[in-house]
């Protein structure tokens, strides 16, 4: 039998008519549209507060930003050298360490599989880093506060892997780096949350921001990895759908059942297998 999401020691057969979370009699709120949990009934519970007012700090988001900044310092020729990086960093600003961590199909084909993840922490130039870290702070802090660090981490990781697959699929022989694939995945997961539950974490529709970024992606396709952005977006959407119990539950509160775990593993193995198949092509 399910247990109340607020009181794990209490068994119950009643679920919120909106989000589907199991609730005990003390947590039930009668509304004109059925029994609901305190959050969905409109009380000022944690998940209903604006992001900046929530108690939990998005520590994983901060950690990811710190890791990106530290690796930028470690992998870039700060004073130039190796050619210009361009507006979005498509040139050779990376030092030897950066070149060994960025995504490159032939290297992945030769067994350097770590590049599928490490490339999401490498950036060309300060502007490239600044754009991505601002987006990660804006999107990541809001999403992590709402869904928790574990689910946020899964979304970010699987989106990064999907972004690498997309980048390799369209340009396997290009040296690709950046967190933008994972960031597009965060927007994809937020789109699932908005479409399923009407939750707008940024105070407005994520759809508009997503459209603007897609236009930007295709307008500067010579400098931006289109495959990385689209792949990351698809990965974020798929991960969001799986975490929501395939659309039957709540992305933030749905139970991590065996079918959900299987779906997440399929996304991971599928993107890795696809990356290896197209690497070096």
Topology:
Elements: E1 29-31, E2 34-36, H1 59-75, H2 96-101, H3 105-109, H4 115-118, H5 125-147, H6 149-170, H7 180-197, H8 206-219, H9 226-243, H10 258-278
Helix pairs in contact: 1-5, 5-6, 5-7, 6-7, 6-9, 6-10, 7-8, 7-9, 9-10
How would you describe the overall organization of this protein?
With 281 residues, the protein is mostly helical. The chain folds into two domains: 1-48, no CATH class; 58-278, Rhomboid-like fold (Up-down Bundle), CATH 1.20.1540.10. 53% of the residues lie in helices and 2% in strands. It has ten helices and two strands; from the N terminus they run E-E-H-H-H-H-H-H-H-H-H-H. It has helices at residues 59-75, 96-101, 105-109, 115-118, 125-147, 149-170, 180-197, 206-219, 226-243, 258-278; strands spanning 29-31, 34-36. It has a two-stranded antiparallel ribbon with strand order 1-2. Helix 6 (149-170) packs parallel to helix 10 (258-278). The longest helix is centred in the middle third of the chain and has 23 residues, at 125-147. The radius of gyration is 20 Å and the shape is elongated. The termini are far apart.
């Amino acid at each position: 039998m399910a247990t109340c999401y607020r009181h794990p020691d209490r068994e119950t057969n009643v679920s919120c008519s909106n989000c589907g979370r199991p609730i005990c009699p003390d947590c039930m709120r009668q509304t004109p549209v059925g029994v609901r949990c305190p959050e969905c009934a409109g009380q000022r519970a944690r998940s209903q507060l604006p992001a900046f007012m929530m108690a939990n700090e998005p520590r994983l988001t901060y950690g990811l930003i710190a890791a990106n900044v530290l690796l930028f310092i470690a992998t870039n020729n700060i004073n130039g050298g190796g050619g210009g990086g361009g507006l979005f960093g498509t040139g050779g600003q990376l030092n030897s360490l950066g070149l060994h961590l960025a995504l490159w199909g032939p290297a992945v084909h030769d067994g350097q599989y770590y590049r599928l993840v490490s490339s999401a922490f490498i950036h060309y130039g300060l502007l490239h880093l600044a754009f991505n870290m601002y987006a990660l702070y804006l999107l990541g802090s809001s999403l992590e506060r709402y869904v928790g660090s574990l689910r946020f981490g899964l979304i970010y990781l699987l989106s990064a892997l999907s972004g690498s697959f997309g980048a390799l699929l369209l340009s396997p022989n290009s040296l690709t780096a950046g967190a933008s694939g994972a960031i597009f995945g965060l927007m994809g997961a937020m789109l699932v949350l908005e479409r399923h539950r009407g939750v707008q974490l940024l105070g407005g529709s994520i759809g508009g921001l997503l459209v603007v970024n897609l236009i930007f992606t295709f307008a500067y396709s010579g400098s931006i990895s289109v495959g990385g952005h689209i792949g990351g977006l698809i990965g974020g959407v798929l991960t969001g759908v799986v975490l929501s119990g395939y659309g039957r539950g709540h992305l933030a509160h749905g139970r991590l059942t065996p079918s959900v775990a299987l779906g997440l593993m399929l996304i991971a193995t599928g993107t890795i297998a696809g990356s290896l198949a197209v690497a070096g092509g």
